[in-house]
Amino acid sequence: MQGVGRRWLQLTEPVVALATPVAAPVRAAANVAVPLDQAVAYVRANSPAGEPIYVVGRRADITTAGAPLIYVLAGRPNPTRYDIAAPGVLTSEPVQREIVADLARTKPKLIVRWDSPTTDAPEPNRAGRSSGVRTLDRYIAAHYRESVRYGDWVVLSSRDAS
């Protein structure tokens, strides 16, 4: 059935190739691929190669999905050791304090926020409940501002870099 569903989507929704060279020949629904390509292009145009960026979901107190692929597509390193937004890890106070310290030390000019409902979707388990820890969210709000939005992708710029 899964193959039938995928084929139905291919026939009914426009599918395009990602424009980012490293992603060739990956194809996705146009409403996913186009904003993703735009966000990656913005990052590549507004941060030097080798300069870190940070990728974060909608909220740090509850997370069910992340987007570490952005690091690969943009060709930019992660300034932290946490590539995956795992519930129980990213949502904990010690890890958020460590990430904030890494961000304060490396001062990335850009943060990419995946503002999709997927990133904090309710789950019928502990991962679907808020940890109450918003240390990382508060740091980002204090030090970054929205520069551009492409669909669910929001690129934040350092307030210090202006």
From TrEMBL:
This is Unannotated protein. It comes from freshwater metagenome.
